[in-house]
Amino acid sequence: MSTIWIEPEHARIRSYTSSSKGARAIVKVEIEVDDPDALGWLLREIAKAQLEGPRRRAEAAEQSRAEKKRQTNGRKAIRREKLLGLPDYTGGRS
To answer: Higher-confidence residue: 4 or 22?
Structure first.
């Protein structure tokens, strides 16, 4: 999870809204910044947070693939096929 810090002496939350549809929600935050350095810092933090989501999903997928490979020890899993219901013509003799 990402965290974005807002310095109260240089930036203030002007307004925020949210809307949801089903299980997902969108939150919009309007931040007022009066210092150019604070603006640059804030934009860098937002960019890092935006990149963190896809990176975490990729890491989770890689861990899942590694775990699956570890469970099969690198070999392909062999499925058990259903036995065929063939009739016995020997009359019970082997």
So the answer is: 22
